Amino acid sequence: MSRRPGTRPHGQIRQSQLITSFGPGAMLDLPNHSVVVGGLDSWSTGGEEIVEPRLVEKLKSLFDPPLTMLKLHGPPPDPDDPTAPQTGITAWQFPEWFITQDVDTEASRGTIRARMLVHRRMLTKGKFIDDRKKKRSVVPVRFVRACRNGHIGDIDWYSFAHGGETDCRRQLWIEERGTTGDLSEVWVRCECGRGERSMLQASERTVSLGHCDGNRPWLGPYSKERCGEPNRLLIRTASNAYFPQLMSVISLPDRNETLREAVETVWDFVGEVEDLEMLRYERKKAKVHKVLEPYSDEEVLDEVQIRRGHSLQQQKSIKQAEMETLMASKEELGDDRPDGNFYARTLSREVWNAPWMKKIERIVLVHRLREVMAQVGFTRFEAVSPDIDGELEMGVRRAPLAREVTWLPAIETRGEGIFLQFSSDEVKKWVNRTDVIARGKRLLAGYDAWKDNHNNATKKFVEAGGLLPYVLFHSFSHLLLTAVALECGYPASSIRERIYAIPHVGFGVLLYTGTSDAEGTLGGLVQVGRRIHEHVRNALELGQLCSNDPVCAQHEPANLHERRFLHGAACHGCLLISETSCEQHNEFLDRALVVPTVDNLGIEFFKLA
């Protein structure tokens, strides 16, 4: 639905929520309507373009075929000027089936409470008028059908109630045959007396709801596509109804302008360079050496490749480029100016040196940073997160945001952070320990059990050989985030993490503020970073004991009864944090890798003494 010029909108929502929670295809309850948010084709223009070339290049490659042109725009703003052009987002009414709010006393029997199930075409000005000319208020039904490809639609209630195709069009009823609200107590009954069925049958992994017809109501009329997947029951307000698929990057300092000028100056010498060996030969020449001295061989070669139309930098993963930048900083990196995108300074080891910090090589205080996050698509029932390198998989089944994608919605957040770099030599020694390898096999068994239960599981954690280091530093990050949040002045939900576990590059953790308003720039994280050794110790002590021990510490990842396949020693009492802060939806966690637990496995990476 869209509003007429000069009228108030049907509802309002924060711009950042349109990326993270209520993007195209999401179901939303407005004050007077239940809707599905329209696709990008129905969004008005007006959102500012967000420039982040590194992210755009990654996003282009995710589409089949890859896109040649793509832009990022913020969601359309709500203009303060009433004379300004109208902006907004179209939303389509969904679902089209409703139930009456009042219980029908004549149809109810004993403890059974019956309400009419009616279609939108049977309503008059939002009310249902029954046979006795009584006006009844209605609310949208909470049950819909969906498939794993993101398609969604109304349940064929007549066919469901009768157990198959039927010509009956008598009145349908929703009956509650109990007081708990459980699906087994919710029944659909037809007035003809030949059809009734429990909603529990709809929730079973059968074809009781038929096969998907490829309905995509968020893209407007005539947008169906071929599907055929079995329909599954979906509750409109359930947490698994919508998972946006997001990709984000940290804006890195721009050295390109001076580098481009330098390469241009010596182009006659380096223009035909094909590899690092040829470049090193050219750099021995006095003029070339003087001009290119501030830059590494890799940076120069990458700029040469860019001028030819293909870049080595673009072949690097998102996190690899960020990790290399953070590791390369000596004293400071970026420009210290109020409107800058990135500025970081290395904290002297004399400030934070302590026995328990021996395996940490560097602390970098990031005074300013900018994160750009874009939505690529969405899934239902199961979330698909970026892998440990920050990349989204190509070929993953995701629902589209528009019929033809020419731009994607994005937001930029500004804030600050703390980066901790760990000793690669210490990590390699730890990973090769016999007892650590044994623990890794138990975690891997849980991962394999999880894959058996998820058809779209990714294997990148195992193939990259980064499972153990990633789980180690991911668990450490959660402990440190919890400890830091007690003193930094930010709520824990506004601090986010970025885990770098790239064996051939390095290992690190970045904690940063992830909000789009002024709350991200208060300086609290940088101030806490000056006493980071104290907070690391608090975090390690915090992880040694959980309120759910010994059950938590002795949890077996492959346990089919608990079905917490991606957890080692981890639960809500110790490691789990707000999902807005975690980059892996609170999965791949095990504090036994970080500190000794009551199970005393002796596999911890850190030593307090």
Tell me what you see in this structure.
The structure is a single chain. The protein is an alpha+beta fold and 609 residues long. The chain contains 17 helices and 22 strands. Strands 3, 16, 17, 18, 19, 20, 21 and 22 form an 8-stranded mixed sheet that branches. Helix 5 crosses helix 9 (297-308) and helix 15 (467-485) packs across helix 17. The N and C termini lie far apart (64 Å). The relative contact order is 0.10. The model has no long low-confidence stretch (mean pLDDT 82).
Summarize the structure.
The chain has 609 residues and is an alpha+beta fold. It has helices at 17-20, 53-60, 157-162, 199-203, 256-265, 267-270, 276-283, 286-292, 297-308, 318-328, 349-352, 424-431, 434-452, 460-463, 467-485, 524-529, 532-544, and strands at residues 27-29, 34-37, 71-73, 91-93, 97-100, 113-119, 123-124, 127-129, 135-140, 143-146, 152-153, 172-176, 186-190, 196-198, 232-235, 243-250, 332-334, 343-347, 360-379, 407-422, 495-502, 506-513.
Give me the secondary-structure category.
alpha+beta
| Counted beta strands | 22
Overall pLDDT: 82
Output the radius of gyration. 28 Å
Helix content: 10-25%
Tell me the major beta sheet: 8 strands, mixed
Give the overall form.
globular
Helix segment count?
Answer: 17
Report the sheet-strand fraction: 15-25%
Low-pLDDT regions = none
End-to-end span in angstroms?
64 Å
